[in-house]
Each structure stands twice: as structure tokens, then as C-alpha cells.
Design a protein that fits this description.
Number of domains: 2
Distance between the termini: 16 Å
CATH topology of the largest domain: Multidrug-efflux Transporter Regulator, Chain: A, Domain 2
Strand content: 5-15%
CATH class of the largest domain: Mainly Alpha
Oligomer: single chain
Length: 134
């Protein structure tokens, strides 16, 4: 249930709903700055059939992060490097989580096999295993 809510929330945050004028007001950036960050590959807003940029809440967060990093003294190349490192870390976490989930499934399968062969209840339950690792 919590996973479903998290997924639904992420889908909503990724929906391209905001035109550039609204994003300008939310971020206090100029249209030129936003277009420049797009040219540099830092953001990739959705384009409508009429080629209008539409931004998601995630895009707005990304623009605010870019703005903060620039104010801290990083240049565009440095920001690209920061984003690359974040993507690598997120990719590693995702693969670690997938591995972890597969390990849990494997443990539960073995417990169920043992329980069926010995006509016993399994010693471990999925909820117990998850609670231990969180």
C-alpha cells in the first residue's frame, strides 16, 4: 500500500503540467536561463504538439537545485558532474534494492518448501524479514 502511494505520488510529480511562465514565477529564473539549462542537457521538459515546453514538479525541483548549485559557485560542468554522480548512486541503489527483494523472495521460497516438506509453519514471514532490514 505504501509502495503504491509512493509510486502514485511520483507519477503525479512527473506529469508535465506547468508552462514556462508559471515555472519562471516559481523559480525566479528567466526564460533564457531555463532554455539554456535545457540546451545544456540539465533538464528535459515535455513538449506539446505545438512545441510548447511543459514542466513537471520534478523539473521545477531540478531547476531550483541548479539555481542553488550556481549560487554556491558551481559552473554548468560541475552541475553536470553532480547530476551524473547522483544518477550513478540512484542506479546502484535501485540494483541493490532489486537484489535485496530477490534475496527475500528466495528466503521465503525456501521456507515455504521446508514447511511443505515438514508440514510445519514457516519460521520467517515476509513482514518479519522486511522489518529486520529496514
Amino acid at each position: 500500500m505504501v509502495q503504491h502511494k509512493k509510486r502514485t505520488s511520483e507519477i503525479r510529480r512527473s506529469m508535465p503540467l506547468l508552462p514556462i511562465g508559471t515555472v519562471i514565477q516559481l523559480t525566479d529564473l528567466t526564460a533564457r536561463q531555463i532554455r539554456y539549462y535545457e540546451e545544456q542537457g540539465l533538464i528535459c521538459p515535455h513538449r506539446t504538439e505545438g512545441n510548447q515546453r511543459m514542466f513537471s514538479l520534478n523539473d521545477v525541483d531540478l531547476l531550483l537545485e541548479i539555481k542553488d548549485l550556481l549560487e554556491q559557485g558551481l559552473n554548468i560542468a560541475g552541475i553536470k558532474k553532480v547530476f551524473e554522480m547522483k544518477n550513478e548512486i540512484n542506479g546502484q541503489r535501485k540494483s541493490e534494492k532489486e537484489l535485496f527483494d530477490e534475496q527475500i523472495r528466495s528466503i521465503l521460497r525456501e521456507e515455504m518448501k521446508m514447511a511443505q516438506s515438514h508440514l510445519k509453519k514457516p519460521k520467517l514471514r515476509y513482514a518479519d524479514v522486511i522489518r529486520y532490514y529496514q
